[in-house]
Amino acid sequence: MRILEVKDYHEMSSIAARIIIEKVQSKPDTKLGLATGGTPIGLYKELIQDYRSNGTSYERVCTFNLDEYVGIDADDSNSYRYFMEENLFAHINVPQSQIHIPDGTAEDLKAECERYDVELSQAEGVDIQILGIGSNGHIGFNEPGTSFYSNTHIVELDETTRKANARFFERLEDVPKQAITMGIASILKAKQILLLVSGINKAEVMKQLLTTDEVDEQLPASALKVHPDVMILADEEALSSYK
Ligand code: F6R
């Protein structure tokens, strides 16, 4: 894992955007693994800005999102599908047919996980996976204790995760209790991984992640230590307990 310390959220977002834009420009059929949450919003804004001013094309790009809440319709403003439309897809020229997000309203959720794994394996690993990290160390919605051999699966969300994500909902009770997520093994199939971390709320988990070489299922992000090409872009606040 390489760590690049940046000043703040803005710098983290611009550097991440530069990496993605250069990738898409040099490989127009790039497969992008995408995340939701607060962390990548600045990155997505920069991609939109670049699309408008420089015309970087996403016509041949395929996208795969990490996760989706169970029981929330794609056109509900709380779904991750909606989040991605609002924050990225509606503003660039990626074709809808090349966007992949698990369907949290599928009648048979297990079959939906299997279907998503087939799509992922047909893609033979995304070129770059964007990740955020939960303050409990989750990546995707792989909560502590998740097997590092896991593929796409249904998860029970931790109370800490539901509370952290309640800011996007009207009430805590509205935050779903389950989600579909790419598993740790699915995430590790990415050729390159970019973990974005910003803010003081992530300082403790970054300290845990960086102060030992240990790989431990209780800290899902520690699985990244076995991947050959991980770059962590973390800002000063996120690294403030580590130093
Ligand atoms: C989102 C995801 C999560 C978030 C993590 C951090 O698709 O898979 O792992 O990256 O919960 O969320 P934020 O960025 O809101 O702090």
Q: What letter string, H or E per element, gives the SSE order?
A: EHEHEEHEHEEHEHEHE
Structural class call reads alpha/beta
Q: Mean pLDDT, rounded to whole units?
A: 97
Residue share in helices? 25-40%
| Radius of gyration (Å) | 17 Å
Provide the CATH architecture: 3-Layer(aba) Sandwich
Low-confidence stretches: none
Q: Tell me, what's the shape?
A: globular
Bound molecules: fructose -6-phosphate
**Integer tally of domains:** 1
CATH class: Alpha Beta
The amount of beta strand, in percent, is 15-25%
Q: Number of DSSP strands?
A: 10
How far is the first residue's CA from the last residue's CA? 17 Å
Give the neighbour order of strands across the main sheet: 1-10-9-6-2-3-5
Main pleated-sheet profile? 7 strands, parallel
Number of helices: 7
Pathway: Amino-sugar metabolism; N-acetylneuraminate degradation; D-fructose 6-phosphate from N-acetylneuraminate: step 5/5
Keywords: Carbohydrate metabolism, Hydrolase
Function: Catalyzes the reversible isomerization-deamination of glucosamine 6-phosphate (GlcN6P) to form fructose 6-phosphate (Fru6P) and ammonium ion.
Organism: Fictibacillus phosphorivorans
Question: What does this entry look like structurally?
Answer:
The model has no long low-confidence stretch (mean pLDDT 97). The protein has helices spanning 9-26, 41-54, 80-87, 109-123, 159-165, 184-188, 203-210, and strands at residues 2-6, 31-34, 62-65, 67-69, 99-100, 128-131, 153-156, 178-181, 192-197, 230-235. It has a 7-stranded parallel beta sheet with strand order 1-10-9-6-2-3-5, with helices on both faces. A 3-stranded antiparallel beta sheet has the order 4-8-7, covered by helices on one side. It is 31% helix and 17% strand. The chain has a single domain (2-223), classed as Rossmann fold (3-Layer(aba) Sandwich). β9 (192-197), α7 (203-210) and β10 (230-235) form a beta-alpha-beta unit. α1 (9-26) crosses α2 (41-54). With 243 residues, it is an alpha/beta fold. The longest helix is centred in the first third of the chain and has 18 residues, at 9-26. The two termini are 17 Å apart. Fructose -6-phosphate binds at residues 35-39, 66-67, 132-134, 138-141.
